[in-house]
Amino acid sequence: SQTIHQWPATLVQPVGSPLSLECTVEGTSNPNLYWYRQAAGRGLQLLFYSIGIDQISSEVPQNLSASRPQDRQFILSSKKLLLSDSGFYLCAWSSQYEQYFGPGTRLTVT
Amino acid sequence: GENVEQHPSTLSVQEGDSAVIKCTYSDSASNYFPWYKQELGKRPQLIIDIRSNVGEKKDQRIAVTLNKTAKHFSLHITETQPEDSAVYFCAAIPTGFQKLVFGTGTRLLVSP
Q1: CA-to-CA distance for B47 and B77, rounded, in angstroms?
Q2: In this predicted model, which residue has the larger pLDDT, B52 or B57?
Q3: What does DSSP assign to residue A81?
Q4: Which pLDDT score, from 0 to 100, does residue A54 have?
């Protein structure tokens, strides 16, 4: 069966510091991969999605970037974090229709 | 592009009552409609979905109905229990697209 991992689970970072969040999927090949952000008490904001290695679409202009160096690995990065980057970051995968979320990373920017 | 509206934003019911959450979509080409349940501090979990060639789907106490003509779909929860308390999100995906468009969420509170 398929499994999706995210790490770290929680992270506290100062403003202006870099960020790297990692997501990996097991048990499937060539999945579509997604990064979402959820502010406290809010909905799901799609940040990036990828249909293949090095094929990444950005949904919103911001100080974040994404990379997919391997088929089942998706990385979210930032060179300089802002206070507004705080939130719950969720990775997700899909093969055709059904989409499944990872356990998430809770990021607090101080 | 696709736009999904979800109502109500909050819903309070007594244990044992039924709950209904409604979503409308704008793109008639959308063909897949999932519902997610998100408990506090957890990831959204896919609880039920429906494809455009089906009008209704049931799974124990939850059901989803789809009206393609009116472009709306609904989640029905019967015999609600306190553990049904969560935020529920609807979503839609147009044919040929790779990403879900989510509604804004409904916070359901089931009081014992």
Answers
A1: 11
A2: B57
A3: -
A4: 86
The first and second tokens of residue B104, run together, are 């804004």
Size of interface A-B (CB pairs under 8 A): 38
Quote the Cα angle for B32-B35-B40, to 5°.
Answer: 150
Helix/strand number for chain A, H first, E second = 0, 11
> Does the distance separating the beta carbons of A44 and B98 come in below 8 Å?
no
pLDDT score for A31: 94
Asked if residues A27 and A2 have their Cβ atoms less than 8 Å apart, the reply is yes
B98 vs B91: CA distance, rounded Å:
13
What is the distance between the alpha carbons of residues A38 and B51, in angstroms, rounded to a whole number? 27
Q: Identify the CA nearest to B46 among candidates A8, A92, A37, A31.
A: A92
Collect all residues with Cβ–Cβ distance below 8 Å to A32 and sequence separation of at least 6: A49, A50, A51, A93, A94, A95, A99, B98
The Cα–Cα gap between B111 and B108 comes to: 10
The shortest CB-CB distance from B98 to any of A32, A103, A104 is to: A32
Q: What share of chain B is helix, strand, coil (3-state, %, to 5)?
A: 5, 60, 40
